[in-house]
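step 3/5: co-fold with iron/sulfur cluster
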Amino acid sequence: MNLVEEIRKLRDERDAFIVAHNYQRPEVQDIADFVGDSLELARIANEIEARYLVFCGVHFMAETAAILNPAKTILLPDPLSGCPMADMLTGPQLAEFKAQHPGAKVVCYVNSTAEVKALSDCCCTSGNAAKIVARYADDEVLFVPDQHLGSYVAETLGRELILWPGYCPTHVRIHPEEIAALKAAHPGALVLAHPECPKAARDASDHILSTGQMVNFVKDSPAREFIIATEEGLIHRLQKDNLDKRFHRVSSYAICPNMKRNTLEKVLTSLRDLSPVVTVAEEVANQARRAIEQMLAWS
Ligand code: 13P
Ligand code: SF4
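step 4/5: write tokens
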């Protein structure tokens, strides 16, 4: 039996369901029962009935699944797959930030720790951030932890937000010069950028979309060629879904090393050992769940 067959067999024996984020390695995406963006993964985690959820993504995503499914066992094949942006804001730092802005509402990007979610009024993803912040039309809003997604939301809504200075180390490596060079080489191509890109890269792009929105946009677009300004893992998914279209990765540096930590071997080991398990302390989980459920209700 090869590795893929072994994983499928064990998955069925264990009553497990495997999900993968759009940035996972191609072979991990290919064995997953569901591949999606952060919002889709949060929703599916809430809906599936299997006993074990193998979460091929980064730690905050598995934590979100654990918060939404206290009765289910959430496995993260590589427990070290963190998100450096999520780690740029701790619970005590957010508590101090809130104390500096009494009365302000806190909207936190799901790329954040459970402690940060627990101290927030509502979560958002890159796909629904503007829609969520718009709900707080008459309030001062603290947007954490991604300054670039925050500045994109502020631009979209034409209002000021108070931003935490976090950022994604992968997306800040995407520069307008590379986009311009690729556009010159492929004049018919549309540039799709993730809102975690800094403003200069966003301004050089045609459309700003979450990874899930990129998947839908490409499917519906009459264009044949695309420059993809986000983590390169998404291109596997796009190419698989659109065999007649061409995709150019924006930069050989747009790789998230944490997303690549989950491998087929680790998926198999986690199913065999039913570990590593991701858990969240009950009190924190109860508080964080309010902010996630508020997002799900509004999106
Ligand atoms: P999406 O919600 O667009 O999938 O993005 C998640 C992420 O981690 C981007 O860096
Ligand atoms: Fe975090 Fe950036 Fe990796 Fe997304 S791509 S998980 S934001 S480090």
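step 5/5: annotate
The chain has a mean pLDDT of 96.
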